[in-house]
Amino acid sequence: MKISEEMVKEIILEVMGQMQPPASASAPASTAAPVPLNLRETGDAVVGKDKNEVVIGLPPAFGNTMTQTIIHIPHQDVLREVMAGIEEEGLKARLVKVNRTADVGFIGHEAAKLSGSGIGIGIISRGTSVIHQRDLAPLQNLELFSQAPLVELETFRAMGRNAAKYAKGENPSPVPVRNDPMARPKYQGLAALLHNKETQLVDRHKSTKELALA
Amino acid sequence: MAQSQQDTAAQDAIAAMVKQVLAAMNQGGTQPSASAPAQSSGHLDAKKDYPLAAKRPDLVQSASGLQLNDITLEKVVSGQIKFEDIKIRPETLEYQAQIAESAGRPHLAANMRRAAELTRVPDARVLEIYNSLRPYRCTKQEMLDIAAELENQYQAKICAALVREAADVYEKAGRLKAA
Amino acid sequence: MAKRQKRFEVLADRAVNQDGFIKEWMEVGLIALDSPQDPTPSICIEQGKVVEMDGKKRDQFDMIDAWIADHTIVTEVAEEVMAMDSLTIARMLVDINVPRKEIVRLSVGMTPAKYVDVLKRLNVVELMMAMQKLRSRSTPSNQAHVTNVKDSAPLLAADAAEATLRGFAEIETTVGVGRYAPMNALSLLVGGQTGRPGVLAQCAVEEALELTMGMRGLTHYAETVSVYGTEQVFVDGDDTPWSKAFLASAYASRGLKMRYTSGTGSEVQMGYAEGKSMLYLEIRCIMVTKGAGVQGLQNGSISCIGVPGAVPAGIRAVLAENVATVLNDLEVASGNDQTFTHSPIRNTARMLMQFLPGTDFIFSGYSASPNYDNMFAGSTHDVDDYDDMLVLQRDLQTDMSLNPVSEEDVIAVRNRAVLALKAVFEELRLPPITDAEVEAATYAHGSKDMPDRNVPEDLRAVDEMMQRGTTGLDVVQALAKRGFQDVAESVLNMLKGKVSGDYLHTSAIFDKDFNVISAVNDPNTYTGPGTGYRLEGERWDLLKNIPAAISPEDV
């Protein structure tokens, strides 16, 4: 059996993922304190022609009025990890801002429809995320990370990697599903507060915009 | 008033029976009426006739015309039972609608009557129409076309009315696909 | 504080202080009931049409107002009941001398704001009394969640069999990985009928896929058909009342039982509550359901329980929404299906609200897997609480619809379910279930005790199975061919249930002999002491004899 460096890395990541105590206790390693991101709109988003891209869809509050996930991962780290995951697989990431909804499923689906590969990722500010495919129904998904308090830095990296693999036509093992029944009592009230902040910037009549990360 | 003007040349015996039931039915609007039970034509009774499988097996047949007793394990194993043989037929849904009315549930009865109509629509088309009714999927004309299809191709008048109503509401609410 | 008071230190460590609490935020609707922005009840009818409702003129109606006005409210009684004093109606709900029938005749004419105006006058004991009197089916029952974090099919089958042996009348699964859905449905179909014939099974996933599985005869009913109380949230849920009503008819057209799902807190959770109270918006959901002609509703906040659970009077509002459902003459699957607290005290108190009066399904998802395996993100109670529940039934002489069982019987039924599923997998050319999996699933506590399956291989096989068009009949054939005649017969009988349509009626379940029990032939006739469903006779003999009880002869 051939053991590649990447396999070893993957196994280490997976084992570390399992060793992590419930999300609430873990302080994710972050490069810096959360700050507003310098995300610049560069016009209306268009359907890409490049089969080697994965589009990441974000709601308008992301990196803007909100700067970190529900477990305090700064948004700059979220984007860095997802994009690194995609690039690790040799593909390119493209960012769009989905203005008309704050629903993670619809954001992911919009990203997938814009993506040259047909694969998109949706991430909302509190960390709930989805890997989506163009020809699925909006509320279906390839992989859903529904419990924001369990979506950690390494989950974002793995999400980017898997999205890229789907884009290449591979059939990857889904990122291991995690479940914490106690996330709801601890976080749901807070999640409601955060989501109301999220939707305040939504404009259902405004189109999706291309984003440049300065 | 339910006497259909549609071309029935291609309809088989089942469709003919369906028509009889439809003709007998009180067409009415979609608004449920508290006084509906008294107007119902069939008069199956919740106390006397329910459950149908036990009390009125004579009325229960599958879409292909099999009685419940005809659907046996032996026949399934020997491959004599097809999926069509274990589907509900529109008459049964009409009987259940009458029972619902007799039990004081006109809303439930109305749904069972829409369902009776949809038994004639193939699975895949039912799913497509459902998806088309989701927000931002169709232009108004596309919705009206679906309504016409339901009415003309499947004799689904009540469902057609529901789709037309949706087309109007979506238009007012700005939930249609941009033309 | 430099120096902590020792009692406060202990209190800070208590489970309840792990819970999140938030203060009311009225502008966005973070309030349980009675928001200052809730409308005042009103109705105006012209020529049989509602032209004004709760202070809004017809041309101001949003989609949900329009649906309720045109499909739900029975105009013949609307003016009569809207003219009645809300306090009088509230008192009728708890008055044993006013029969359920009379209340249900009137309630269909009430507007959403009127429901709130009535229900806000009842305290929790009165709400429980109303539930006892108004629930649709006389005999209470229960639903279980059967899931695991690995989507392990053998474990699902074993857990389904144990759950049904223990008395759950309905079982529900969902997925960790979306594409597993048909395999999970298949596992419950086989496992459920092995444990107790006649149990209904479902697989909660995206609406269109869920319907497809039902059409194929892989499931018996559906429940995750979500409705919401504001137009924007409804649309974010990718539906409208019209698409959902069409879906309801689609289910019935294939002879499939269905209920909707809603719950307080979902609108504010999804960011668009328009400043209205959670209860007011939930009542709009209930009335959308009623107008669609759906027989029942799962509510009691459900997946949003952390939201009402975090605000004042939230758990009272949750009971009120259950009562509003039965007041609409609908089946209620009354929640208690999602973790909402770290505190066992809070947890039990919340559950008593539905357990004591009894509902159609007291739990709409008791976790028949350990909570770490519960893919609905955890239930209030799980497998580790079974014995506590049996004792609560015995203490209070109140039926939670759970049976005492012996370890031998559970081992036997779990083993048989996995063997039956193994046979079906072989016949349907799905990746084999190994002997090691059979053994592990038989004796497992949860998925930690299960070997891993090859996920990509499973998923490929599931896709192929769906493309081949496998139906419930193929499952019957497979079971019969491999010597599971009785299970085959049960799976077939469930398919025949779809032909007669008897279980499309309100609150329908089947007993082990496939007799339907619903609000039609088992209506709730409670009118005070000495009437209605009582835990006595044979059933009480069964429930009081828990295995742990010592008999005089034994000492």
What does this structure look like?
The complex is a heterotrimer of chains A (214), B (179) and C (555). With 214 residues, chain A is of the alpha/beta class. Chain A has one domain (38-213): 3-Layer(aba) Sandwich (Rossmann fold), CATH 3.40.50.10150. Chain A has helices at 5-19, 75-88, 104-114, 153-167, 183-199, and strands at 39-44, 53-58, 92-97, 119-123, 129-133, 143-145, 209-213. A 7-stranded mixed beta sheet of chain A has the order 1-7-3-2-4-5-6. Chain A is globular. Chain B has 179 residues and is mainly α. Chain B is built from 10 helices and no strands. Chain B has helices at 13-24, 36-39, 46-49, 52-55, 73-77, 90-102, 106-118, 123-133, 140-154, 157-173. Chain B is flat, with a radius of gyration of 18 Å. The model of chain B is unreliable at 1-41 (pLDDT under 50). Chain C is an alpha/beta fold and 555 residues long. Chain C has 23 helices and 14 strands. In chain C, strand 5, helix 9 and strand 6 form a beta-alpha-beta unit. Chain C is globular. Chain C starts with 5 loop residues before the first helix and ends in an 11-residue tail after the last helix. Classes of the chains: A alpha/beta (214), B mainly alpha (179), C alpha/beta (555).
Reconstruct the topology from this structure.
The complex is a heterotrimer of chains A (214), B (179) and C (555).
Chain A: H1 5-19, E1 39-44, E2 53-58, H2 75-88, E3 92-97, H3 104-114, E4 119-123, E5 129-133, E6 143-145, H4 153-167, H5 183-199, E7 209-213
Parallel strand pairs in A: 2-3, 2-4
Antiparallel strand pairs in A: 1-7, 3-7, 4-5, 5-6
Helix pairs in contact in A: 2-4
Chain B: H1 13-24, H2 36-39, H3 46-49, H4 52-55, H5 73-77, H6 90-102, H7 106-118, H8 123-133, H9 140-154, H10 157-173
Chain C: H1 6-12, E1 43-46, E2 49-53, E3 56-57, H2 63-72, H3 75-82, H4 86-94, H5 100-107, H6 112-119, H7 124-134, E4 143-145, H8 153-165, E5 170-173, H9 181-195, E6 200-203, H10 207-215, E7 221-222, H11 231-236, H12 241-253, E8 257-258, E9 260-261, H13 266-269, H14 278-291, E10 296-298, H15 314-327, E11 331-333, H16 344-355, E12 364-367, H17 386-396, H18 407-427, H19 435-443, H20 455-468, H21 472-481, H22 485-500, E13 509-510, E14 516-517, H23 537-544
Helix pairs in contact in C: 2-14, 4-6, 6-14, 7-15, 8-9, 8-18, 8-19, 9-18, 9-22, 14-15, 18-19, 21-22
